[in-house]
Amino acid sequence: MLSNQRLKDRVALVTGGARGVGEALAHKLADEGAKVVVGDLDAEPLEAVVASIKKGGGEATALAGDVTKDDYGDRAVACMLDSYGGLDILINNAGYIWNSSIHKTEDEQWQAMLDVHVTAPFRILRAAAPFIRNSARAEEIEGTGYNRKVVNISSISGLYGAATQIGYSAGKAALVGVTRTLAKEWGRYRVNVNAVAFGFIETRLTRAWETKSVEQIDVGGRSLSVGFTREARENIKENIPLGRAGTPEEAAGAVFLFCTRESDYISGEILVAGGGLLSL
Question: Which of 84, 163, 190, 211 is least enclosed, having the fewest CB within 10 Å?
C-alpha cells in the first residue's frame, strides 16, 4: 500500500536489496514513491522483490550482478539512467561477513571484505559523479535544484571493532572515511552523504543455529559460516539496552531518515541503529 509519497519520482539504488534490510528498504522507498533499482547477487530472490514491489503499486527494476566486479558501478548508474532518467538516492547496502581471528585470516579473505564493503561503494559513487556534478550545475542555473542522498551502510563493528571480524570491521571503518570525505566533496552539489551503522539486526547473517550444524550462506561459490549459537545470541541481546535485536524494517527506517527532505542539512554523519548496543 502506497503511503504519502515523500519520495515521489526520486530514483534510488539499493544494493543487496533481495533479502533482509535491503529488501525492507527497497519496499520502503517504493512505498514512498521512489523508483527503485534493486541490485543483488542472487537473481531469483531479486526478481521476487521487484515483482512484490510492482504488485503493491510501486516501480522497481532488477539489477542482477556482483557489486565487486569492476564494471558494476557503471552498470548500476546506467541502469538508473536508462530505466528512469535520473539518479537521486544511492544506498550502498550489499555485504556479508567472513569471520575469523587475525591469525587465521588469509589475504583472500581480507581482500574480499574490503572489496565488498568499501571498494564496491567507492566504484558506484565514482561512476555517479559525472551525472551528479553536471546535473547540479544545470539545476543551479535553472533554479530547480534539490538535495540528492547517499547513505552508506556501516556497522558498530566498523566503529568499535569486533573479535574475529578483522576484515569486516576494517571494510566498514573505511566506509566511514569514504562517507565523511564525500560529504565534503559533494556538499557543493547539494548531496547529503551519511552512513548508518547497524547493531544486532535480525537477518540471515545473525540467526541462531537450529542444530549443531553451523549456518552457511553461499557467496560467489564460497560456503561461509554465519549466525550464532542461541547462547551467544542471548548474551548479545542482554547487552542491548532496548532488550532485543532490531528488525529489518527498523534498520531500513534508520536509513530512510537520511533519504528525506528532513535530512537536507545533515551530512557527514554516522547514525548508529543498534538499540543502544555499542559493541559485539
Answer: 211
Which of the residues are catalytic? 168
Exposure class string for 26-45: b at 16+ Cβ within 10 A, else e: bbbbbbbbbbbbbbbbeeee
- Report yes or no: 168 and 98 within 8 Å, Cβ to Cβ: yes
pLDDT tens sequence across 147-186:
999 999 999 999 999 898 999 999 999 999 999 999 999 9
**Structure confidence by residue, pLDDT tens digits, 6-39:** 999 999 999 999 999 999 999 999 999 999 999 9
- Distance (Å, whole) CA 66 – CA 100: 23
- Read off the amino acid at residue 80: M
Q: For residue 153, give the nearest of 79, 90, 92 by alpha carbon.
A: 92
Per-residue burial over 208-236, b if 16 or more Cβ lie within 10 Å, else e, is ebeeeeebebebeeeebebbbeeeebeeb
Q: What is the pTM of this model?
A: 0.91
DSSP, residue by residue, 184-252: HHHGGGTEEEEEEEE-SB-STTTPBPSSSSPEEEEETTEEEEE-B-HHHHHHHHHT-TTSSPBPHHHHH
Residues 52/58, Cβ–Cβ less than 8 Å = no
C-alpha cell at 158: 566498523
**What is 11-200+247-271's CATH number?**
3.40.50.720
Contact 149, 190 (CB under 8 A): no
